Amino acid sequence: RIRPENYLKKSIPDQLEHLLLERRIWYLPNTEYWPWEDRICLNPNVSTSGICHEIKHDKSIAAIKANTRFRKEWEKLAVNENGKSLYFSFSEQILERFKGLERFVDLPNNYEELGFVSGYAMTNIYEDMAELCECVENHPDRFIPWFYGNANEQNKIIQRKVDLAHRFGREFGLIPEGFKEYVLLRKTYKESLERIIPRGDITSFNRETAIEFLEKSKRFLDKHVRTEYESELEYKRANTMARLGEIGRASCRERV
Fold first, then answer.
1. Which residue of 35, 54, 96, 134 sits 20 to 30 Å from the alpha carbon of 212, by its own alpha carbon?
2. What are 105-126's pLDDT values in tens digits?
3. Where are the beta strands (DSSP E) in 129-208?
4. Which H or E run contains 38?
5. Among the listed residues 127, 128, 126, 102, the one whose alpha carbon sits nearest the alpha carbon of residue 114
6. What is the predicted pLDDT for the residue at 108?
7. 149-182, pLDDT tens digit by residue?
8. Which residues contact 21 (CB under 8 A, 6 or more apart)?
């Protein structure tokens, strides 16, 4: 639901939150998921990323309820070398919400190395799942180095979290089918354009990688019928074919 702007029309929790905000001591989130009411509460100025984040809360909690192993397996990935949880303690979660007190929460700068897509994902397992799955939807290129980068760039923990989200959240649509394959296709497509971007010279187009992209994307679309990535991939395939056609025409003119 959309939060009403009229104070008297707000729910009691919203009224309390409003009073705290007026005294500038409480962080008012743009979105919230209320599992006890099974609803998502939105502010009028909410972003699409915020909406997606809250939807992922709903889907991930449904997946946890369906199979408790999901939570147990995920929690194993959020511990330090001594087996201690990396998530905020209850007191830290409270302090984080109050203006001026959040500075007492020790937030590591190397959260990616620890297997989190954001610092906020370290709040608790629910925020961790929602942040990662929202990142899957809206920032897929961040996963290119985590999945397919060099040895220093790859992130095994994030890879395993994505695998868990796919395995336990498939029936709930937690992440799209074929996401890892899709990320590889984005990587291949980008590489096919690398030689074009600096000069805009069509003759420098990476022809071999372009053909590789066409072949792999065709297999992907055949395998994942009605995928949400279909329109994007079809556009990129058409763009790639057009560029390959220009190369062929340029090559013919050179021979003449």
1. 134
2. 667 778 999 999 998 899 899 9
3. none
4. none
5. 128
6. 72
7. 999 999 999 999 999 999 999 999 999 999 999 9
8. 28
Is the per-residue pLDDT at 94 higher than 90?
A: no
Fill in the DSSP letter of residue 220.
H
Distance CA 118, CA 112 (A): 7
Q: Which residues of 224-233 are buried (b: 16+ CB within 10 A; e: fewer)?
A: beebebeeeb
| Pair 208, 236: CB distance under 8 Å | no
Residue 164: both structure tokens together: 């868990």
Query: Given the structure tokens 């980068």, which residue do they identify?
Result: 149
Q: Which residues of 162-187 are buried (b: 16+ CB within 10 A; e: fewer)?
A: bebbbebbeebebbbbbbebbbbbbb
pTM for the model stands at: 0.78
Q: Which long-range contacts (CB under 8 A, 24 or more apart) does 204-209 make?
A: 205/243, 205/244, 205/246, 205/247, 207/244, 207/247
Confidence of residue 253 (pLDDT cuts 50, 70, 90): very low
Residue 27, token pair as written in the block: 């962080």
